[in-house]
């Protein structure tokens, strides 16, 4: 005997999708602080392998940190939230431990920081709580070694795709294409509503580079 029941289909809704090659920071809806600019590394080397084209670049040797901020309507404890972004490093060896940092926060700047550094270590990927855009050190390391080494854009490595997912109740997963030993997972429900994505430019000796950024939610 077969019982036919109702079948529901759940679809992800795109909250925003940015391709930094398609316009200025202002026209794409990003607020800028610090030494951010647009850069095409192929202009320096016409034979560059895996050239990502025009990207958002936070300059090497910047004197202060800087942010790219995208605001959107609050998303309160969705069934699933997925932030996908392409990012990398303009220069440096694949294990030069510069860091990419992304925040997922509410309207008051409270939420979470996700950090990846080029390394083969448990500190290669980290997370921490954010309060009014500030976070403490040390952050929370991965429980075991993760290989997050990444060839720079200048050396033909292009950008890597990273994904942050949050499930209802506060289970997070942070992963990068090509990582060995990941992903990083943790659970925390300190912040449950989100309305800003912040791409952080931290003081560094290599350019920090971002390409496409997309946020989706499933209610």
Write the layout of secondary structure elements.
Layout lengths: L12 E7 L10 E4 L2 E4 L15 E4 L7 E11 L3 E10 L9 E7 L5 E7 L2 E2 L3 E6 L9 E2 L4 E2 L12 E8 L3 E6 L7 E4 L5 E9 L6 E11 L1
Antiparallel strand pairs: 1-17, 2-5, 3-4, 4-17, 5-16, 6-13, 6-17, 7-8, 7-16, 8-10, 9-12, 10-11, 13-14, 14-15
Write a structural description.
- It is a single chain.
- This protein has strands at 13-19, 30-33, 36-39, 55-58, 66-76, 80-89, 99-105, 111-117, 120-121, 125-130, 140-141, 146-147, 160-167, 171-176, 184-187, 193-201, 208-218.
- With 219 residues, the protein is an all-beta fold.
- It has one domain: Exo-inulinase, domain 1 (Jelly Rolls).
- The strands form three sheets. Strands 1, 3, 4, 6, 13, 14, 15 and 17 form an eight-stranded antiparallel beta sheet that branches. Strands 2-5-16-7-8-10-11 form a seven-stranded antiparallel beta sheet, with no helix packed on it. Strands 9-12 form a two-stranded antiparallel ribbon.
- The chain is globular and about 45 Å long.
- The two termini are 33 Å apart.
Can you give me a brief rundown of this structure?
The protein is mainly β. It is 0% helix and 47% strand. The chain has one domain (32-218): Sandwich (Jelly Rolls), CATH 2.60.120.
